[in-house]
Amino acid sequence: MARKFTNKVLTANRLIEGDVVYLGINGDWVLDHDRAQILKEEEFAIKQLALANKDSGFLVSPYLANAEIRDGVPTPIHFRDSFRANGPTNYNHGKKENHNV
Amino acid sequence: MYSYTEFDNNFNQNRVDQFRSQVTRRIDGSLTEDEFKPLRLMNGLYLQLHAYMLRVAIPYGTLNSQKMYQLAIIADKYDRGYGHFTTRQNIQYNWPKLKDVPDILQDLANVEMHAVQTSGNCIRNVTADHFAGASTDEIEDPRPTAELIRQWSTDHPEFSFLGRKFKIAITGSPNDRAVTKAHDIGLRMVRNNKNEPGYEVIIGGGLGRTPMIGKVLRSFLPRKDILPYLESVMQIYNMLGRRDNKYKARIKITVHEHGINKICDLVEERFIIQRSSFGGFDQKLLIKLEKAFAAPIYINEPIDSYNKSYQSDPLFRSFVDTNLSEHKNLNYSIVSISLKKHGQTPGDATSQQMRMMANLAKKYGHDELRISHEQNVILPHVHKSNLYKVFNELKSVELATANIGLISDIIACPGMDYCALATARSIPIAQQIAMRFNQLKLENDIGEIKIKISGCINACGHHHIGHIGILGLDRAGVENYQITLGGNSTQNTVIGKSLGPGFSYTEIIPAIEKIIYTYLDIRSSNDETFLETFNRVGLTPFKKIVYTPSEIINKSTATFANNNNESFASQEIK
Fold first, then answer.
1. Taking the model in full, what pTM does it have?
2. Cβ–Cβ of A87/B50 closer than 8 Å?
3. So what's the pLDDT on residue B567?
4. H or E element: which one contains B475?
5. Taking burial as the number of CB atoms within 10 A of a residue's CB, which of B26, B137, B338, B511 is the most buried?
6. Helix B6-27 and helix B33-41: axis angle, to 10°?
7. Domains in chain B, please, with CATH?
8. Residues B362-391: what's their mean pLDDT?
């Protein structure tokens, strides 16, 4: 049986910097998971992924990651996506240091 | 140590120029990511969870102060002021930007370094005993052979696109510090019945999802035959190795499926042809290389000051007793610098620490440094009269932790804090174990123990061969840690036995604590190591305690202690 579509965010790494970005509400690419656009419709999400795959001059390895709204904020569901969103846990660096594209 | 020839420098420079052009074409859109990815991987550039990662080769773990300085400069100039030394004697930078990588490679090439063949299905960086050329138990320094293999395997057209990656390790000592039995090819120097040195050739070892201990292919190979013989092995692997399934493509599976006897027959048959085709050039080169790795000119100074400092400074005494190994020159020591200060990321060194280690090598260490597969740095030749100065300077940059071989000297792969392949974190587990046992002040009482942690089944953290191995997995979206006990990474290599069901992130440290308390409780004497105890009693007593809820253990321990002055654990195994 086909798995039911659940909320997603579209994420990738930037080509030159290599850091993690998310498709934002305005169709721009943002660094903060908090500012990611929650994709609620499967067809729209797949279309956005296809567009991101074509944008290979800016992005690398785009994919759709599960997310949900918690306390009004887009939040990763899987711990891997949490680490990607927040940076390594052994040092206070990565996303913890950078907060704006 | 070996210095590049004009040929080496030209090759290296060409690769830098070539990659610069490839990066330019990727950024301007001439190359797609699919086209670019294999090119960047051939130059050690990965895309990880948070950023690119550049893996730089440190051939056979040997470097000098100039190279270490340059690694520090690169860490400051292009990264975040630190680097991570790995179990393959490489260094990884976790935060380079794509546009900077050609400049990094240029800076490396300027000091005869590179990132070539640190990724991809080729013969990777050759690893070696980190005490090579210094230890008391060595038959001969294996590094001339390691360098010969490096030159032979670099950009070898026949072996640049193998079925899978291929790792070679070499040691010149009977006491194996290079984990030769867990490599695709392991070379152990031995003597034949005429007392001539040669190599025992072991193939088909490896960890990962199918851990296997290497099998002896040749019990004695004369040194002069090393390249034609290796080439024969590679050709047979290239011919028989599977390409239909990447999980069955390593030579360990080839050996397993065809049997060591068949592989041996094919290699020997091939070897007859290969040997005649080499013509002696390799032997002339080996003689040159042996000169390049000649022992340093040892100094002759009194060592009274060392003895005095040893008596008067307890911290120095602890450092000496824990971090020093015997050198073949009685007035020298091998100094292991721990990159495992309690609570730090195993294998990480800041640029300041790298500069200090380079300085110490230059001032007191005959300009030599080594990287160990256990993620520490070695000063292989320090005269005893200089040891106290070395200790104090190390202390000033938090590098004098006296814990080599103890419970906080943990191997940990980068895990899910960095690695795109990881299924769980490794580093925080290592940090917490180190902090916990430091807090309990039990480290010295526990004594020799090797904990090795991998954040996925690929086993970069060598968990199968740790006395305690920890494997981090993703179980239904939650980090879960499996424990193995009784692994051994020496010449008596053993794959550890699984303890049972895994533990959550919050349960794993208490589980390790229970294992250690069980060991302390049941060891036959204070001299019996964890591994010896395990080999004597097996899994059962550990299993019983670890899977018994803590409140029951506490209650039982109190009851037993009140009644018999005996603990729960010692009751259990009777």
1. 0.94
2. yes
3. 39
4. strand B468-475
5. B338
6. 160
7. 6-109 (3.90.480.20), 142-292 (3.30.413.10), 304-396 (3.90.480.20), 420-572 (3.30.413.10)
8. 98
